[in-house]
């Protein structure tokens, strides 16, 4: 099958039978139509790429980057602007060349392995506190609300130097800005403006009284031309880190625990051998079937992908989650192997735009799992797997809640 064989492109993201299940279309596209037309929430068409080598190649190609507001790209969201991917924030953060490298290097200094190791005791202490509060309230409990959401919010807020007591505001603004179908353009514009004013206020305070946090440090940074970072870039960076630093990790903690509990032999294997935590985290990331929309790339010249040639002006939607289940790259790709190593999954993307915060996400996932195994060895789902519910309408995937008992 080729792209032209699909007369009426399907809507993407595809629906799945269950909250943790992979859509059946992934396997069909990988086998029969590895570069196929789909329709996004906006109604615009994109080229969906589902095979591991193809997704990795496109994401790693330095010629192409995320669509910017100046591109005639397919819009991910059904708002007029296309959502956060085509927002003012996306326009401010540099996407190409020396400016992009300078931005990544500046932010990347705060996510080194040394810094992450130094954070582990504090993350563990906060996880223990949240678990104690959850268990004191009694079972059943929502592990997402009690642990998976507040923990990464606390971590990223501490790193940035903003109060985690504002986490409900961050959650609302993030949901609006990551919406594909749930909010209007007016609501999106309001959330973006409110978030910007909020960060602007914190930056003003830090100019007057700098701390030992990332936002304070950025006030003295310069761009690739030696100029101080603009207020717009500082605010956009803070917004991006707050959204990415809590939304995806909070969802992944809940999904990881759910994946390990739906077949409780997995949880028991970790109890018997806690050394498997690191590989179990990587396998959870690889097997995540509810990861969201994926990463888009705007093609500024013709590109050969597999047996297809995508013309300049195409928006390529790279499904890392579909690629992570490609049997060509992973033996037993549909199965969860807690000992899988190496595990070169694409959950964090690839190339120059791979997730900057992946060391932090990995640290939080590992520490959370270690603490849960130690403090709640009897943890189990409080509902059957069929009772788990997906978050709908957002560019990132997650569970609405994770009911557990112990």
TrEMBL record:
Pfam families registered for this protein in UniProt: p450 (PF00067)
Pathway note: Antibiotic biosynthesis; vancomycin biosynthesis
Keywords, sorted A to Z: Heme, Iron, Metal-binding, Monooxygenase, Oxidoreductase
Coiled-coil parts of chain: none
InterPro entries with a match to the protein in the record: Cyt_P450, Cyt_P450_B, Cyt_P450_CS, Cyt_P450_sf
Gene3D superfamilies in UniProt: Cytochrome P450
GO molecular function, one term: iron ion binding
Origin: domain of life: Bacteria
Protein's UniProt keywords contain Oxidoreductase: yes
Described function: Involved in the coupling of aromatic side chains of the heptapeptide of vancomycin.
Homology family: Belongs to the cytochrome P450 family.
PANTHER family (alphabetical): P450, PUTATIVE (EUROFUNG)-RELATED
Name of the protein in its database record: Cytochrome P450
